[in-house]
Amino acid sequence: MGGTAPVLIDHVNIRTDRLEEACAFYERLLLLTRDAPPGLDPARYAWLRNGAGHAVIHIATPSERDGDDGQGTGALHHVAFSCSDYDTWRSRIDAMGLRCEVNDFPAASLRQLFVIDPDGIRLEFNFHDMPQAAFAQAPA
Prior knowledge:
This protein is an alpha/beta fold. 16% of the residues lie in helices and 29% in strands. Strands 1-4-3-2 form a four-stranded mixed β-sheet, covered by helices on one side. The protein has a four-stranded mixed β-sheet with strand order 5-8-7-6, covered by helices on one side.
């Protein structure tokens, strides 16, 4: 078994019946830019690009032709993001009116935020290297 293990996830593909709602959600929450995937119908598919231009989230509507209804994709529990600037992220989540769960791991200097996207996908935002003083008070 040679080679090296992958260290980055290239993208996440989300199947939804609500393409516009899903795109708007991720554009606003993650500050991604919507783009039409090359060679695909932009009425059914979207790529959401980060600031570096990489399409990190692909969103598609299911079709009878491909027989993919978005079900049965396994036991994926959540998608996690490594973040910085907790206050900015929390303000953005609150401004969107999203229900947000906070989980603290003081021993690891880690605070986590959890939200649910329009299709029920759990998103985790990890803030590493939180100062210990942040854990002395209830999270905002």
